[in-house]
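Example complex used in Figure S2.
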Amino acid sequence: MNLVKPEFGLIFWMSVTFLIVFFLMKKFAWGPILKMIQEREESIESALNSAQKAKEEMAELQNNNEKLLAEARLEKDKMLKEAREIKETMINDAKEAAQKEAQRIMAEARNSIQNEKMAAINELKNQVALMSVDIAEKIIRKDLSKDENQKTLVATLINDVKLN
Amino acid sequence: MLYKINTFKIFLSLIIANLFLLGATSAFANDSTAVPTTAENETTAITAEHHEAAHEAGAAHGEEKFNAGKMILEHVGDAHDWHIAGHLAMPLPVIIYSEAGLDIFSSARFEHGHATYHSDKTNISYKLEENKVVAVNEDGSVKEDLTASFYDLSITKNVASLLFSLVLLCWIFISVAKAYTRNPGKAPKGLQSFVEPIIIFLRDDVAKSSIGEKHYKKFMPYLLTVFFFIWINNLLGLIPIMPGGANLTGNVAVTLTLAVLTFIITTINANGHYWRHVFAMPGVPVGVLVLLTPIEILGVFLRPFVLMVRLFANITAGHIIALSFFSLIFIFGEMNTGAGLGFSLFSTAFTVFMMVMELLVAFLQAYVFTLLSAVYFGAAVEEGHHEDAHAH
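Predicted assembly (556 residues):
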C-alpha cells in the first residue's frame, strides 16, 4: 500500500530542506525571539521588583514622616508647656521683684521721712535752745529785779516769739 | 497535562464515532441500491440498471463510475502536479537520478499520465503509473529493475508544499524576530502578539516542565521549529486548493523524518543515566533484567516509531473522513440527483464539523508531537538521583 510506504524523494527533500530551515530559524528567528522574550521578562520582573521596592520605601518614608510629625508635635507641646512655665515664673518673679522694690522704696521713704522728722526736731530743739539762750540773755540784760519789769519783759518776749 | 490528554481522547473517540456513522450510512446506501434488484423481478431490475447506467453516462460525460476509495487515496497521496481547480493543475518538475545520469523535465510531458516521455540524454522512457514515475520499454511495459534502481527526487505536490510551508515558516518567524529586535522590551504587536503566547506556552509548559530548567534551552529551537512546522502544514492540509491541499503531515515520509530527527537528538544528548536505564535498570534483579533490557532497547526505537505513526495516522484519518463525507454526495448523486443534492446538505454540515475538529486536531497533534519529543529529550538529559532510580 502506497500510503504507508515512505518515498525516498520526499524523505530526501524533507531532511535537506527541514534541516536548512531549522538552522536558519535557529539563528535568525528563535535565537532573537527567545532572547528578546527573556530579556523583556527580566526587565518586567525587575521593573515590578523596583516598583515593589519603591512602594515599600514610600511606606517607610510615610512611617518616618508620621513618626517625625508625632515627635514634632510632642516637641511643640513640650515647648509650649515650657514657655508657659517660663512665662509664669517670669511673671511671678517680676511680681516679687516689684513688690520687693516697692517695699524697699517705701522703707526708704519711711526712713527718709523719719530722718527729716528727726532733723526737723533737732533743728527745732536747737532753735528753742537758741531762743531760750536769747531770752535768757535779754532777761539777764534787763533789770530783772523788779517784778514789773520782769512781767513786761516776759510779755514782750512772748510776743516776740512767734512760733512759726 | 492530564486535561489535555483527556480532551485528546475525546477527540479520538469522536473520530471513531464518526467512522461508525460513516460505516452505517454506507451500509444504508448499499441497502437502498439493493432494494429494487431483490424486491422486483429480473426484467425491471435490468431495465433499472440500464436506466441508471445511461443516466450516469449522461451525467458524468462518459467518465468512469465514481470510485470513492480511489479518489480519497489520490487526494491523501502524493502527485506530480498540483491541483488548482477543475481540470487546471500546476505541472511540477520531475527529477530522476539514475546511473545513466540526471533527468529533469516538467510533469506536463506526461499529459496526466496519458503520454510517455523519452529522455535523449539518458535514453530512458518515463511514464506515470498510479502517480509514480516508472521507466518503460518502447512498447509501454514497465522496466521493473530500472524503476527500482533510480532515485525519484521529483518536486512532487508534497515537496512543493513542503518548500512553500518552509518559506512561509521562515518568513513569519524571521519577520517576528525582526519585530522583536526593532522594538526591544516593548509589548508585542500584530503577528508577534499571536505567536508569542504559543512560544511562551511551549517554553514554559512543554520544554521547561518536561526537560527541566537546566537543559531546556538547548532543545527550544528544535521544539519550536517542529511545532510550527507541523501546525502550519496541518492547517495547509485543510485548505482544499493550492497552496494547500497537500497531505504533508499525513505523509509517512515526512513524519518518519521528523521522528528520526527526534530520535537522533535524543540519542546524541542521552547521558549515562539514560543508557543505564535502558541497558541495566538500577535496582532490578538480574533475572528480570534479562527480560527487561530487550524491552527497553525496543522501547528506544518504538518511541520515535509511535511518534511517526501517530501524526501520520491522525492527519490522514482526518482527511479520509472529510473526503468520505464529500464522496457520499457523489455516491448518492449517482443513484439519484435529488438524493445527492439532499445528502449534500448533510454532508456539508458534517464536513464543516470535521473541519472545525481538524483545526483543533491540527494544533493538538503538533502539540502532542512536540510534547512527546520534549519528554524524550527530558528522559535523555535527566540527571540521575539515587533515590529516584529506585522509584522507576
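Strands of chain B lie at 81-85, 88-91, 93-98, 101-106, 117-119, 124-129, 132-136, 151-152. Chain B has two domains: 93-154, 158-391.
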